[in-house]
C-alpha cells in the first residue's frame, strides 16, 4: 500500500563511490572478505587487484598453523560450511612473502588476525605492527573463531572478555583495529558497544554462523570437526539484521558489512542497513571476479535509483508508514 | 598456463550406458587468457550452471577431451544436486567454466609401461592420457585396468581398442571381464612385472577404495604410482583451502586443486 | 578416504517407525510445526490428518491477539522471514472451536503457547490444562518470540529466567511441557539444561533465527516490524548443530528437531543428530502434504540404508575416523 | 469447492507485447478433488516450478481462462525471481498447482453497469469476468477502463472488442487512448453516472496506486467497488497468516487468500 519513492535515475558515471571507513578513505565500498581471498595472488589471474577497494587477508596468527583434517567444506542450501582451521603462513612469512605484493597494489590492506589465546592476540598485533607499520591499513581482529578449541569462544561472546582483548590489542599497535564479531550471540549490540569502548575503530559484521551437516549414507558429519562456519546467501538475513541493530544502537561505530553478498543489490541492502562498506566472501570461490561484478552492479543500481553517493545510501532506510488506525466497531 | 573463467555453450549432452553422460562444451576466454584447449590429462575444470543461489559452488570435472578450436568435453554421472542438474542440460544452455586447473599425470616415458587403473567417473583423465599417447604414437606402452559394477558401468571401451591399448576388465557381477575388483588382476600384473624386472608405473583414478588398493600395491612392490584424487572443492584455484589432502612431508596437507589432483602414492598420508 | 558402512537394504514394509517422545508414544516421528499448520483444519482438504504423527498448533495466548501490520512475510535465499505477530484465537476459542476436531483425529496434539509476560505464560498453561486436560498431549512452550516487545527476549536467552518460567508452567499443569528454544543465543546447551532442570519433558529445537531483508527500491524493510524470523532450508545447518550439541551434552532430554526439513533425508539427518522426532514447518506452505511426503521418503531411505527402527537412527552418528598421524620430516 | 494440489504440464508459453506472457497449463487432481476448471473470475492459483530449495514458496496468479477439460491459463510478467523463471518455461515442463483459491468477483446483476478497471498484471481476472459475461450474454453490461504505461502495455484488447465490451484506454505516454492515468476518465464516468442516477459498480485489479484511486472514487461517490488485492503470500490457503489485509470491522485484519483477494472498497483500511 506504499508507493515507491519517486526516484530520478542518474548516469552511472556520476555515481560517486568514494567513501571512507573510520578515517580510512576507500575508492569504493567493496572489499574482499577474509579467508575467501587468500593473500590475493591467485586472483591476479582473473582480475586487476587494483580495481578492488581493498581486501582482508586470510587470518594470520603469530606462528604458522596447519589446518584441520578433511573434509573441511560442504555445501548446504544457499550456503556452505567450512572448517579450514585457521590455517595460515604465520605473521613472519606473511610480512615477508605476502604483504609486499598487496602493498604494491595501492589498495586498502586489511590484515585479519587472531591468536590462540589472549597473549597470542596481543603478540600478533605487535608483530604485524612492528613488521609493517603504515603498510597495513586495518588490523581486522577475528574474535569469532569457531575452530579454535579452548577459551576462544568467550572472546566473541562475552562482552567483558572482548573488551579486555580489544583494549590490549589497541594498545599494542598504531594500526586501527576493526573487530570482526561472531553472529553466534544473543545480543550483538552489547558486543559492538564493548569493543567500541575498548577503542575499536569499527566492526566487521558478520563472521559465519556455526552449523552442521550429516551424510546419512556414511552416518558421519560432513566435515571432520563436526561443526563448521555457515556462509553464503543463506545467512544474509541474519547479517543484515545485525548490521542494522548495531548501526541503530551504536551510531558512531563504522560497520563493514558482510554475509551472503553475491550481487550489487545485496551490497546496497547492507549499505542501507547502515554499513559504511562491505566485503564479499564466499562468492569469490565460484566467481573470482565476484567483488568487481558486485561493484559494477552496485553502481548501475545506484544510478537507476538516483542514489549519487555511498553516503546517501548508507542508512537511508525509511520506516514503513503506519497503517490507518483500526477501531473496533461500536466505539 | 594460468586458469581463466569464461562462459561456454553446451553443444551436446550424449548418454552412455550405466548412467554416464558426456557433456560437450564450446567456449573461449574473451580476454585472450589461456584456454581449456591447452589442458593435459589429469587437469580439470570447474563447471557451474545457472543454478541461482541454491548451489553456490562449481563442481570439478576431469577434462575428457579437448579440441584445438576450444571445444572440450567432460564425462560424468548424476550423483548429487549439481550433477543431476547437469544431466538435464540441453544444447545452447550455458555454463561457467574455470580452467584448466591442477597438475597433470606424467606422460609416458620410454621403456616404462604405464598401467592405467580406472573405475567409475575416474575414467576421463585416463581416457585422455590414452588418446594423447595414441596421438604421440606411444599407446602401445599403455595398458588399461578398468573396473565397474557391471558391463554397463564400463564405457568408451571401443576408443581404447581403436588406440591399441590393451585392456583388462573386471566387474563386480562378472558380466564383463573377471568377476570382482580390477585390483585383483592388477595385483597379479604388478607382482609379475616385479618378478620379471619389467619397468612399470601406475596411473589411477576412481573410487577411493580402489585408489587405496592401488596405493597399497604400489608401496608393497615399490612401484611408482600416481593417484588422481577427488576432494570436495569450493574454488578450484587454491584460495578456499577446502580441498586439503593429507600428505607426508614438510607440511601435513597439500591441496587437491593446485598441488594435485594427481599425487604420488608415497606422499599421500592415508591409513 | 572412508568407505560407506556396508548396509543391507531392507523392505520399506519392515521399517518400524513407531517411536516415543519422552513418555509419549508416537506412530512415527514426523509432526507438523507450530505456525505452519494453523489449527489443522485447512489441511484436511489435502490429506488425512490421521496420517500425521501429530501437530503443533499455532501459538496460543491467554486472550486472542491480532497480528502485526503488513507486510508480514518475504522470501530470502532458501528461506523466508515472517513476522506474523503471534496472532491467534486465544485459549478459550481454541479449546472451544479448534481442539475437538484435533482430538478426534487420534494424533498427538501439541499445543504451542505463550504469554505476553511471565504471568501470562502461567495463566495460559493453567487455562489449557483446565479446559482440556488429557485432550492435549504436549504443551509446547514458546519462549522464543522475536515478535513480543518487552522482556520477552529474556525468556529465551537468559537461562535463569527460562528456568523460572519453565518451573512455574510445569507446576501449573499436569500436561508435559516441552520448551521450544530460540537459536538466537550463544550457548544452546545451557538453555536446554536450565529448562530440563526446571522440569521440562523435552525441548523443541529450533525456532526461527532473527533476520531482516530490505527492498532497495522502496528503501524500506521488507517486513513491517523490520526484523522477522528466518525459517526454511537456509537454517538447517544451525538447527542440526544445536540438536547435536544438546543431544551430546544433555543426554536424557528428548529433542524434537526442526528447521528447514523438506525431505526424508533432512528428517533422517535430524534423527542421526539426536532428535527423537521432528517437525516440518515452512515446507507445508508450498506443499500441504509435505509432512507425509517427508515421512514416505524417510521410510524409503531408512529401508535403503538398512535402518530398521527410529531408535537405530537416532544418535547413530559415527565420528569421522582420525587421519594417519603426520610427523614432520627428519623426526 | 475445496482446493487441491496437483502437477500440471505446460502446454504453451505465449508472448504478448509489453513483456507479458500467457502460460497455458493442463492437469487435473488425481484424487478426484476439485479442479481449476471450476474457478471463477477473481479466483487464483498458486504456482511453483521445479525451483529446488532456493525459492520455497509458490506464487499467486489470477486465473485468466479455464477449459472444462482441465486446461487453464494465467497471464504474467517477469518481475522477480519466480516469474523470471516462469518466463523460461517450455512445453512439457511441469508446475505444481494449488487451487482454485480465494473468493471471486460478484457476477453482473441486472440493471447495474459493471465497470472493470484494469492495469498491468491486474487484467486477467477482469478479462475472465468479461469472457464469462459474454458467455452468459450479458457482456454489454460491462465496460473496461484499462490503463498502462504505453500502447504495448495494453494486451488482449481484441478479446474485449470481440465480446462487445466497450473500452476506454489510457496510457502514461499517450500512445494509446487518453494520456495519463485511466482513473481520470473513470472519475468522469463515475461522476456522470451519479449525476444521471445510473446504477454502476466498479471491479478493479491493478497496481496499488490505481486501486487506491478507485477506492477513493468509490467512497467519494458512494458507489460499490470491489478491489482484487495482491499481498505477499506463502501458502494461499489460510495457514501462514502472511497475507493480512488491514480492514475495518470486528477484526483489524482479514486474509487476502481466503477472505479475498476481492475486498470491497469500504472494508479495506487504507490511509
Ligand atoms: C579433480 C576432480 C575431478 C573430478 N572429475 C570428475 C569427472 O570427470 N566426472 C565426474 O562425474 N565427477 C568428477 N569429479 C567428482 C565431481 O566433482 C563430483 O561428483 C561432484 O562434486 C558431485 O557434485 P554434485 O553436485 O552432483 O553432488 P553434491 O550434491 O555436491 O554431493 C552429493 C553427495 O554425493 C557425494 N558424492 C559426490 N561425488 C561422488 C562420487 N563421485 N562418488 C560417490 N559419492 C559422491 C558427495 O560426497 C555428497 O555426499 C571430480 C572431482 C574432482 C575433485
Ligand atoms: C491474488 C493474487 C493474484 C495475482 N495475480 C497475478 C497475475 O495474474 N499475474 C501476475 O503477473 N502477477 C499476479 N500476482 C502477483 C504475483 O504473485 C507476483 O508478481 C509474484 O509474487 C512475483 O513473484 P516473483 O518471484 O517474480 O517476485 P519476487 O522475487 O518474489 O519479488 C521481487 C520483488 O518484486 C516485487 N513485486 C512482486 N510482484 C510485483 C508486482 N506485481 N508489481 C511490482 N512489484 C512486484 C516484490 O514486492 C519484490 O520486491 C498476483 C498476486 C496475488 C496475491
Ligand atoms: C572458507 C572460508 C574461510 C574463512 N576464513 C576466515 C578467516 O580466516 N577469518 C575471518 O575473520 N573470517 C573468515 N571467514 C568468514 C568470511 O570472511 C565472512 O565473514 C563470512 O564467510 C560471511 O561472508 P560471505 O557469506 O560473503 O562468505 C571465512 C569464510 C569462509 C567461507
Ligand atoms: C509463518 C510462521 C509462523 C510461525 N509461528 C510459530 C508459532 O506461533 N510458535 C512457534 O513456536 N513457532 C512458530 N514458527 C516456527 C516454526 O514452528 C519452526 O520452528 C521454524 O519455522 C523452523 O522450522 P522450518 O524451517 O521447518 O519452518 C513459525 C514459523 C513460520 C514460518
Ligand atoms: S578447492 Fe579451494 S583451495 Fe582447493
Ligand atoms: S497466503 Fe498464507 S494465509 Fe494467506
Explain the overall architecture.
The complex is a heterotetramer, with 2 copies of chain A (331 residues) and 2 copies of chain B (271 residues). Chain A is α/β, with parallel strands linked by helices. Chain A has 10 helices and 16 strands. The model of chain A has no long low-confidence stretch (mean pLDDT 94). Chain B has 271 residues and is an alpha/beta fold. Chains in contact: A-B, A-C, A-D, B-C, B-D, C-D. The complex binds flavin-adenine dinucleotide (2 copies), flavin mononucleotide (FMN) (2 copies) and FE2/S2 (inorganic) cluster (2 copies). Residues 44, 59-62, 74-77, 79-83, 121, 124, 230-231, 233, 256, 261 of chain D line the site of one flavin-adenine dinucleotide (FAD).
The residue ranges of chain A in which pLDDT falls below 50 over 5 or more consecutive positions are none
Distance from N terminus to C terminus of chain A (CA atoms, Å) equals 26 Å
Which ligands accompany this protein?
flavin-adenine dinucleotide, flavin mononucleotide, FE2/S2 (inorganic) cluster
pLDDT below 50 for ≥5 consecutive residues: which ranges of chain B? Answer: none
Distance between the termini of chain B: 34 Å
- Beta fraction of chain B: 25-35%
- Indicate the percent of residues in helices of chain B: 10-25%
Approximate strand percentage of chain A: 15-25%
Indicate the radius of gyration of chain B in whole angstroms.
18 Å
Number of helices of chain A: 10
Please estimate the helix content of chain A: 25-40%
Please provide the count of β strands of chain A.
16
The outline of chain A comes out as: globular
Q: What structural category characterises the helix and strand content of chain B?
A: alpha/beta
Greatest interface (CB-CB under 8 A), with counts per chain: A-C, 58 and 58 residues
Overall average pLDDT of chain A: 94
Taken in chain order, the helices and strands of chain A follow as EEEEEEHEHEHHEHEEEEEHEHEHHH
